[in-house]
Specification:
CATH architecture of one domain: Orthogonal Bundle
Number of strands: 0
Largest sheet: none
Order of helices and strands: HHHHH
Low-confidence stretches: none
Radius of gyration: 19 Å
Distance between the termini: 45 Å
Mean pLDDT: 88
Helix content: 55-70%
Shape: elongated
Length: 110
């Protein structure tokens, strides 16, 4: 019988040091951010095309440079939340942001 990913991770991570766990946390966070960048690019491009806007038109409507919109759509951009908000507002995209602390901060870490 094949092990599930969770079972395998439980077995492998049983011997991890705190440094191993920190490395895993950082890699996981980087992967989540990359997935978000890809999703954002696809979403912006799809919405722009559905509305019939060129990148140049979208740039004029949002005040964001056309080359930056191009980067976002190619999943190479890293727009600020303000720029994301401008894009979403013009493209009719609703966003829900949730900001949470992933783990408690100890006095030693602060």
């Amino acid at each position: 019988m094949d092990e599930t990913f969770d079972e395998l991770m439980a077995k492998v991570s049983a011997s991890w040091t705190p440094a191993d766990w920190e490395h895993y946390r950082l890699i996981s966070m980087a992967m989540r951010l990359e997935v978000q960048r890809i999703q954002l690019g696809h979403l912006v491009k799809q919405a722009r095309k559905e509305l019939g806007y060129s990148q140049r038109q979208l740039a004029k409507l949002t005040g964001i440079q056309q080359k930056e919109i191009c980067k976002i759509e190619k999943q190479k951009g890293n727009p600020t939340l303000i720029k994301q908000h401008k894009l979403f507002e013009v493209l009719g995209i609703q966003a829900n942001y949730e900001i949470v602390r992933s783990e408690p901060i100890t006095k030693e870490a602060a």
